[in-house]
Amino acid sequence: MSDTMTRLDAACYHAAPGFMAHLEGELPEPYRRDGDLLTVLGEERTAYWTRNVWKEPFTAEFGSISDAARLLKGVQRNWAHYPTRNARRGELIAAALPPLPSKPKAFPFSVPGAPMGAFTLLDEHTLLASAACSSPWPNGRLDFAEDREGPPSRAYRKLWEALVMAGAMPGPGRRCVDAGACPGGWTWALAGLGAEVIAIDRAPIDDRVAAMPGVSFVKHNAFTIKPEDIGPVDWFCSDVICYPPALYDWVSLWLDSGLARNFVCTIKMQGTEWDRQTVARFAAIPGSRVLHLWHNKHELTWLLVRD
Ligand SMILES: C[S@@+](CC[C@H](N)C(=O)[O-])C[C@H]1O[C@@H](n2cnc3c(N)ncnc32)[C@H](O)[C@@H]1O
């Protein structure tokens, strides 16, 4: 850190689109607000409803646009601009920085090794920035090269993102459960990786997905199926619409059975509130992560990856 930079004893929380009220409820009164970015003093806190967290924010005074770009480049290569004030000037700084990949990503791929920073302008001559951020994507945004023909729903993007974040994925010879599978986006994604998929839903899945190699469909209430009825699975996936405690209880059965190795589950919130208590219970399961993915709506993703 150069002497023109001042490290803040704070973290900046960039709200997930549409979920500022949830984020405000997770944090104490911010020290400052810049658009959807809340700067809160003190050590980084657990906050789920974010698209990105700026972990080590600093401010820096600069003269010209090229001075600002030089200053940022001196720290690292990748910087995403979050436009708040002086947005045009911020864009010009961004244009003077090494370009970020702009094309939608073709799945599968790995999380890039190089860190992704973020910056905004507090005024014409002051940057607020962080080289270390929670999301590897610019401002938390991840766009996939989409398949508009194969999958029967766009929910598959959520599973793709979860698997990229997991840093592991099922492939040939792996067995997966996909609960709440209808119309079949997740099953399509898992079968597309070559895995065997037991798709469970009370409603039928798309015929073309049901006919994919390795897919078997079970028309049933998922919660009345016991782990022993299915046997060992490498990946337990659930996108069931249900109250979070019902999912927690069913997941607990699987955890206790020892029959599932890796988990990707959507914790779906009902109405306008969110179930903090159950989210905290999921987060407390050793080795797990709870994330708001770019492709999540009013829901969080619980990941437990042991591969
Ligand atoms: C959001 S959709 C899943 C979308 C799916 N992941 C995809 O990629 O196409 C939620 C599904 O949960 C199913 N569901 C809700 N309660 C269920 C239960 N108790 N057992 C099985 N499926 C259930 C619904 O029928 C619905 O198809």
Please indicate the count of domains. 2
**What is the CA-atom radius of gyration, in angstroms?**
21 Å
Number of helices: 9
User: Beta fraction of the residues?
Assistant: 25-35%
Helix content: 10-25%
- The tally of beta strands, per DSSP, is 16
Ligand types:
S-adenosylmethionine
The rounded distance between the terminal residues' Cα atoms is: 37 Å
Which superfamily, in CATH terms, is the homologous superfamily of the largest domain?
Answer: Vaccinia Virus protein VP39
Helix/sheet category: alpha/beta
The CATH first-level class of the largest domain comes to Alpha Beta
Largest sheet: 7 strands, mixed
Q: Name the overall outline.
A: elongated
Task: Spell out the key features of this protein.
single chain, 307 residues, alpha/beta, VC0802-like, Rossmann fold, 2 domains, seven-stranded mixed β-sheet, 24% helix, 27% strand, elongated, binds S-adenosylmethionine
Please specify the SSE layout and strand pairing.
Layout: E1 5-7, E2 10-15, H1 20-26, E3 32-34, E4 37-41, E5 50-54, E6 57-61, H2 65-73, E7 79-81, H3 87-95, E8 117-123, E9 126-130, H4 156-166, E10 175-179, H5 185-192, E11 196-201, H6 207-210, E12 215-219, H7 227-230, E13 233-238, H8 244-257, E14 260-268, H9 276-283, E15 288-291, E16 299-304
Parallel strand pairs: 7-8, 10-11, 10-13, 11-12, 13-14
Antiparallel strand pairs: 1-6, 2-4, 2-5, 3-4, 6-9, 8-9, 14-16, 15-16
The site of S-adenosylmethionine has 21 residues, from helix 5 and strand 11.
